Amino acid sequence: MKKILSLLIALVAVSTVFAQGPLEFKVAKHNFGKIKQGVPVTYNFQFTNNSNGVVVIENATAECGCTTPEYPKSPIAKGATKTIKVTYNAEAIGSFTKKVTVKVANVAEPIYLHIEGEVVDAKASAAKPAAKGKPASKKS
Question: Could you give the number of structural domains in the chain?
Answer without folding.
Answer: 1
